Every structure is written in C-alpha cells, then in structure tokens.
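Ex. 9. Protein: Alanine racemase.
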Amino acid sequence: MIRPTPRLEIHTDRIAENLHAIVGQCTEHGVQVAAVTKVLGAHPALLAALPNTGVSMVADSRLTNLERVAAADLGLPTLLLRPPAPRTAARTVQVADASLNSSLVTMQALSEAAEMVGIRHGVIVMVDVGDLREGVWPDHVVDLVSQTSHLPGLDILGLGTNLACYGGVIPTADKMELLVDLRDEASRVTGLPLELISGGNSANLPLMVSGQMPAQINQLRIGEAAILGRNTLDRSAWPGTRQDTVELVTEVVELERKPSIPQGERGQDAFGQTVKFVDRGVRLRAICDLGRQDVAPEDLTPVDPGHIVLGASSDHLIIDVTDGDITLRVGSEIRLRPTYGGLLTASTCADVWKTSADER
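Predicted structure tokens for Alanine racemase:
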C-alpha cells in the first residue's frame, strides 16, 4: 500500500513504554498520572497506548478530542484541561467527568448543566502561582472555593496549577507548598476534603524525582514527557523513555544541485522576513511536500544526521541532503522528528495524514 505524504507515524508501543516508565516513577512518589492526549488530537494510535499503563485519567483541552476518547471506551475518567466557556457547559458535563476551572460564572453554568441531566461533574479549581496563564490569584482562592462549595451537581475535587507553559516559570518546592497551603486553608474554611492537588504537567517531573515536591501533590498531567520522551524544562531526554515515538514523513518532489545563496537582488520573503543564508557552496537540495502551512521548519529535526533543514515556504520544505546516508531520488521519503510545537501543528493540520506506525 502506498501511503500519502506528508504523514505523521505514531509508534503506539513506544509511547506505551514511556508511559509505563513515567507512571512507575510517579507511583514511587504517590502521584497519579492524567495522560494528556491533545498534542496528537487524541488519535486512536495514541489512545491504544494508554490501557494497562497505570494512568488514572485521560486529559485533553478540546471537547472534540474527548469525544474521540469516549468513543474509544477506555474505561478511564476524563478531564477537560482548558477551562470551559460558559456556553459549552452542557457539552462539557456530557463529555468530561471533570474540568479545570477558575471562574465562578462558568462553574455556575456547569452546575446548572449537570443538574439538568442528573449527573455530577468534578471541578478542579485552578490557582495561578506565577505563570500568568489560567487560575485565580492566590488571595482569591478561598473565596472562590467557598462560593462554589454549595453549587448543586458539582464535586469540588481539589486545587490545581499550571507552570512552564505561558510564562515559562519553573515548578519549585515553594510554588507547590503555596498550592498545598491554599488547599489546606480552603478545606478548613469550607469543610470540603479537597483531596486532589493537581500540581502541574511534565515540567514537574524533575522536582518530583529530586524528592523536593511536597508529598501532598498527588496528580500530574503528563503529555510531552510521555509522548516525546522529553524533559520539558530543557528538552533533554527524560530518563527511562525513548524519543523515536513519532515521525513526520515527507516526500521529495525535486532533487537538484543549487547554490547555497539566492541569486539576485533580495527583499523580504513571503512571510515578511529577511533571511540570512550560509554559503556552503553548491549543494544537493531536496524540495519536499511539506510547508509552513503544515509545520514550522525550525520545529523539525531530520532522522538522517547528514540532512539539514534549510527552511520552508508555505508549501515547500527545503532540505540539504548532500551528506545524507541514503541515496535519494524524486519520490523518496525523508523522515523528521518534530518538537512538541511542531507535533501540535502537524497533528491538527488536515493535510497531514495521521496513522499508526504499524500500518505499513
């Protein structure tokens, strides 16, 4: 079978290996893992990696992705990562068992929606401890929990926070201790157990394994570390994981020897940039069927160490293949490994075909 390009190939078994390793590490520290599926759009090849790994929940930021999770019937509770908009309350309580929230207005809407269909919806109240993304500021946490504690149809599960995303703020023991202290005060005032403290994402793993994360933190929401095997603080390989889990495959549509420097008077490129070029002399250049409309070229690393990604227009990826290990021709495939950002854009691009790596 000739498979189309460009395409993402997902190695289910390798991601499952990574999940086993990370869940094992987390279990040693009393931490449950909510597996985050958003970077691959909850693709079936990813969902197939989740059973029997020990993950406690499936988490995603998009309701459409959680609908795919529901269709897969994994038998795991689901968590909506992005605080829902009030107008999506009815759909949220139908698709997600719980959601992250920081707005009283939204939680009132969720309460009404849950009551209307006779179900209970779990809520994790998000606290902003410095990254400046979602979350109520610390001095408002107790008031918000108190205001939501009597809303019918809702179960206030606990508190959560998020770091190292928007502001790049690194999780520290002080940040986590603040979250624990806020949980304890909110629990004292409301009488709610607030047993769940969702301390963050893959960026918390270094703090956890160092033994500095407070023992009360009992959940992490893990995506990149499991799917790409990366320490998200510096993108180094995370211990016990592999990084060859997803590959982006593109096809060569032109193969020519050309100079390294454009010839003629130059202005801006199609994206308003003035690009600097390195003169390597005449080189063998592959033009491939992948462009910025699909993924940013700076988010791609060739599997062949002799290949160099030079750049891209909207529809064409240019790769210097002069020193490659394999002889190429027009119609040959070139494999690349995406960063988290590259994987996110490629997996949501309709023109990039997604498939299990086993379907060859």
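Check your answer against this statement. The two ends are 7 Å apart (CA to CA).
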